Amino acid sequence: MNHLEARREIIAACIDMNRRGLNQGVTGNISVRVPEGFLITPSGMDYGEMQPEDMVVMHLDGSYEGARRPSSEWRFHRDIMVKRPEVGAVTHMHSMFAATISCLRKDIPAIHYMIVVAGGNSIRCAPYHLYGTQALADAALAALEGRSACLLANHGMIVLGPNLKKAMWLAVEVENLAAQYWRALQIGEPYRLTDEEIAAVVQQFKSYGQGGAGETPRCC
């Protein structure tokens, strides 16, 4: 069985996202790039029961190998892997606050400076389309243009990363931003940072933490 460590990493991440409240039940899905294309979680399996051999190897032409059927959302995973060669992992979750904001069909605006870790001054909400369809994949790809995260209307969120660890870290940040936005909306319309203020944050991040020079933080 190829890519055993990556298969185990996906299972651990699936269990972790449910434990953290980022997802519930058998919803959500994860993929990780491999030379053949990508590994993806199987459709409708309990995360606690998944074994490494249950991960599905998918090729970029949409064909797959293995005993299990791939996640019904394989199309947007495939399209992201094709269009975004820098992406090593894709996570999709039905987290409470991100899904709530998506039900309002709102973008998450720059209410907090940490918005920049998702790649811009907003987290866009893609229009609603039936799950598992090419229309949803197309809408997600457009919403992710220049971004590492987006919402899917009346659905949840997609988060990208160069690897699975960083994608999972960013998913927590996106859910936190969604929670802050939801809570602020209970009181009124929150103030938004200007483009100039966001640009200053990006510049400030270049010397933050232990990363290399000029690197915007993508993980703790």
Give the overall average pLDDT. Answer: 93
How many domain units? 1
Described by strand count, sense and barrel closure, the largest sheet is: 8 strands, mixed
The CATH topology is given as: L-fuculose-1-phosphate Aldolase
How far is the first residue's CA from the last residue's CA?
A: 32 Å
Q: Structural class of the helices, strands and pairings?
A: alpha+beta
* Biggest sheet strand line-up: 4-3-2-1-5-8-7-6
Rg on CA atoms, Å: 17 Å
Question: What is the C-level CATH assignment?
Answer: Alpha Beta
Instruction: List how many beta strands DSSP finds.
Output: 8
- What percent of the residues sit in helical stretches (DSSP H or I)? 25-40%
**Full CATH superfamily name:** Class II aldolase/adducin N-terminal domain
- Element-by-element helix/strand order: HEEEEHEHEHEEHH
Looking at the structure, what is the overall shape? globular
Low-confidence stretches: none
How large a portion of the residues is in β-strands, by DSSP E? 5-15%
Instruction: Using the 3D structure, state the CATH architecture.
Output: 3-Layer(aba) Sandwich
Detailed description of the structure:
The chain starts with a helix and ends in a 15-residue tail after the last helix. The radius of gyration is 17 Å and the shape is globular. The protein is an alpha+beta fold. It has a single domain, classed as 3-Layer(aba) Sandwich (L-fuculose-1-phosphate Aldolase). It has six helices and eight strands. 40% of the residues are buried. The chain has helices at 4-19, 74-83, 96-103, 134-143, 164-187, 195-205, and strands spanning 29-34, 37-40, 56-58, 64-65, 89-93, 125-126, 149-152, 156-161. Helix 4 (134-143) links the parallel strand 6 and strand 7 (149-152).
